[in-house]
Amino acid sequence: MPHSHRALWLALILVLALIVAAIAGVLGWLGGQNPPTALLTAGVAFGGTATLATLLLHSLQDRQPPLPHEAAQAGGRVEPLR
After folding, report:
1. Where are the domains of the chain?
2. In the chain, N or C: fewer CB atoms in 10 Å?
3. Which parts of the chain span the membrane according to its record (predicted)?
């Protein structure tokens, strides 16, 4: 994935995490949490969403075939990527 695309995806992930955090914080506050607890809820929602989306993006990106020295370390047996 080119760096320009990576930056775009990162920005999209951060905006998504910010939206989820705002919704979680407002719902917590409306549900009776005091403001510091609602803010903590929003922070956890932001961190969780950003982490999950980043890991998902990483797992879905195109993978490169193994390098020759990696194949040698695996005993010459490297399964093809699908």
Report:
1. 10-54
2. C
3. 7-31, 37-57
